[in-house]
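Exam revision sheet. Question 4 asks you to relate a sequence to its structure. Input first:
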Amino acid sequence: MNLNPQGEGDMAPKSLSGLDLVLGSFHSSLRRIDDQTERYLAALRNPHIQILAHPRGRIYNFRLGLKADWPRVFAERRSSIKHWRSIVIQTDRTLI
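Answer key, structure tokens:
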């Protein structure tokens, strides 16, 4: 599901209620240079998503990705989950 800069999804919660798993990801405003920590925290607090997909939005040699206070972002998520998983499908993308 696409997440806007405020961390809100572009699908109705009713549409998501029957799904086992919902990935949320940012697909806009990915070239911002200011700190995006609050954006990430809002996304992590969204009760309708279980996975934040390609969190930095970085593409090697093309787009730098978003800046955030990563220890704070990870601490927020760590406080509410039991397991971490990282799956990298595109080799030209990196998480951090």
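Marking note for examiners. Helices lie at 13-16, 37-44, 70-78.
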